[in-house]
Amino acid sequence: MNEHAGTEADRLRHPADPPTGGRVIGVLLRLAWSTVRTRKVSFAGSFVAMASAQALVATCAVLLDAGARAAPAQGGEEVMSFVVPFGLTCLFVSAFAVSGAFSLSVQQRTREVALLRAVGATPRQVRRMIAYEAFVVTVAAAVPGCGLGILLAAALRAWLIHQGWVPDAFPLDFGPWSLAIAVAICCVTAQLAVRSSGRRASRVRAVQALGEAAVPPRRVGVVRTSLGLAVLAGGVWGLAAIDEWGGSDAANSAVAMVMVLMIAVSLLGPWIGKLAGAVFGVACLMLLPVTGSLVRANLSLRHRRLGAAVTPLALTVAFAAVALFVPQMKWHELERQDRERLLADYLVGTTGLEGLPDSTARTVGDLPGVAAAIGTLGTHATVLAGDDPGGQGPDGIAQAVTDGPLNQVLDLAPAHGGLDRLGPRDIALSRSMARRAHAAVGDTVWLALDDNRTERVRVAAVYTRDRGLGEVILPRRMAAAHRLPDEPSSLDTVYVRALPGRQHDVAAQLAALTRGRPSWQVQDRSAHRAEARRQQDASMTATYLLLTVVTVFTSISVVNTLVMTTMERTGEFALLRLVGSTRTQVARMMRAENAVTVLAALLVGATVAGMVLTVFSKALTGSPYPALPAATIALIVGGAGLLAFVTGVLTTCIALRQGPATALNTAE
Predict the structure, then answer these.
(1) Are 418 and 408 in contact (CB under 8 A)?
(2) DSSP of 330-392, one letter per residue?
(3) What's phi and psi for 51, nearest 5 deg?
(4) DSSP 8-state assignment for residue 219
């Protein structure tokens, strides 16, 4: 290592010709390539992380390009609508893993960087060398990463076709620019990852460089700490906003809040390592009389390493819990509200894109035995509170309903006011919409509909069962007056309530009414709930796919990080054995440290997930105590913990296979 570092320093200090322009870039690229090729083991973890990240990003880039090139009839829009949120999540997770791997790689090379600084390399040269090394690793990982990304894109296309989301005619047609953009995104991520680590490594003065390498600095940077606290404050503020406003966007915001909080965890990783080392170090000292003091010293001195190992495992737990439980909680609440809300015996709808004629509700209502028939049409509305019709306000899905006793077909559980009949200028708001619009029963507000023209209306009721229906109820005539010129006048669904004892008669008459209309569809309550469960299963299938992909990637990141942090300590293990420690004692010490890493990561991940799920549950159901299946929690926590612990134990066994002298020479 010393000869290699000296050669690097000589090239940096005494170039053959004055370094200008492209010659400098060429020299640095050759130097970076030489470093990566010479220290394959040190860069192996970064290479694995980068190749995996490029595979994920390339998969999304290929599918987005194919979706943009496909015709509407080939399912291009459906693919793009699926890939965009999928890609954003994968981009965040891949950036997280790549950043952690490269930062850890720079930390592991502190002694080499220190030697370069001691023999005359300037801080700027060190930073540029590290940046070019990251660039070389990115380029080297491009071929396997993009190749695997194309295969994953083909597999995902086949899965989407099998699920019936896109037709068989959807082509996997993409250009080279999609792969180039994927590589560029990963390259930028790698450069950002090594920027702060390289700056910190190059900032040490030359006379202190080797001392800093031997004893890592205990002080955590003020900028990093301040930024981490600011991001944490932003995440807490976001959770408070979800708790206050709730609404239909709470589910979408939950995953975003996990990302924000995990960024804060990453930035505050050294502090988390310090805290975990202090707390668990005392426990190890009490439980392990022989090796406990050594474990405590390692945890206290190497808090950066502990924080780096905790972060990917905590991300795995937090993301898996939120990505799995949030959709389940949402669907369970939607199913509960739909079951309690639906009073109608039958629902009349269509199987095609065309809606029902406006006269359908009146026609069905005139059938013998029908007590009430109410037609609904989904639309969009914005509530503008106060006296300013040109202002801004909350918006959401609305339901335009025809005249009639709405409370006979739908029980919306009004908290205030009544929903038996809406007047021509009356509307009803969901509780979350009323809270966001600062409106109450009896207030007069402005309502903006599809044509952006406003209407002055009165809030007649505030209801609570809005999931799966809408946040505003308004008269159908009001919505028709604001219909766009090219928008057809129709209904989505007609809710039908039969007189007591006349259900079979009404069913027969509805069957006769729809016999000559093949696109019309009549469902009773059981058929309606079966269709809702089918849609839930389809939606959860996509969730499981995303969760599987992200979990596999984060698991790779966890294994990669633990292998890197353990294998770098080969020299340390050799020194311990040379001064009298046995392999069993070293292995026991590492098992204790691995247990601390796993416990700290599980606590951090569970805390992040618990914060998000608690706020989401309160926004969704009004209760801050989410009903979560214990078996699934045990599977997530136990699986992640077992993966990390087994990886640490196996890597330690591999590191201890060499003799002390051989291992020490290899480390040096």
Answers:
(1) no
(2) HHHHHHHHHHHHB--SEEEEESSSS-B-TTHHHHHHTSTTEEEEEEEEEEEEEEE-SS-TTS-
(3) -65, -40
(4) P
Residue 279: exposure state from Cβ atoms within 10 A (0-12, 13-18, ≥19): middle
What pLDDT does 555 receive?
Answer: 81
Report pLDDT for 347.
92
Give SS3 for 504: helix
Strand pairing class (395-401; 444-448): unpaired
Non-local CB neighbours of 145 within 8 Å, separated by 6+ positions: 50, 51, 52, 53, 54, 55, 58, 183, 186
Q: At what angle do helices 583-621 and 525-567 cross, to 10 degrees?
A: 150
* pTM to 2 decimal places: 0.76
The residue type found at 460 is A
End-to-end CA distance of the chain: 6
Q: What is the pLDDT of residue 28?
A: 67
Which residue from 286, 277, 285 is spatially nearest to 309, judged by alpha carbons?
Answer: 277
The helix-helix angle for 2-13 and 123-163 (nearest 10°) equals: 110
Q: Which two tokens stand for residue 224?
A: 């990093």
Alpha carbon distance 475, 403 (integer Å): 7
Helix (H) or strand (E) holding 233: helix 222-245
From the list 119, 99, 118, 97, the residue with the least C-alpha distance to 107 is 99
Closest to 261 measured CA to CA, from 248, 242, 247, 275: 242
Q: How far is Cα 437 from Cα 435, in angstroms, rounded to an integer?
A: 5
Place of tokens 């009430």: 372
Nearest Cα neighbor of 75 from 85, 63, 58 is 63
Cα 140 to chain centroid distance, Å, stands at 28
Domain ranges of the chain: 1-217, 218-342+526-668, 353-518
> For the chain, which residues score pLDDT lower than 70?
1-25, 27-28, 40-42, 108, 110-111, 200-220, 244-252, 352-353, 385-391, 659-668
Q: In degrees rounded to 5, what are phi and psi of residue 172?
A: -90, 70
**Can you read off the two tokens belonging to residue 587?**
């292995």
Give the residue carrying structure tokens 């807490």: 236
Give the three-class secondary structure for 650. helix
Residue type, 665: N
Q: What's the pLDDT at 603?
A: 92
Residue labelled with tokens 């799995």: 324
Give the up-direction half-sphere exposure of residue 161: CA atoms within 13 A in the CB hemisphere. Answer: 13
Lookup result for tokens 């999304």: 60
- Reference 329, options 606, 548, 609; nearest CA is 609
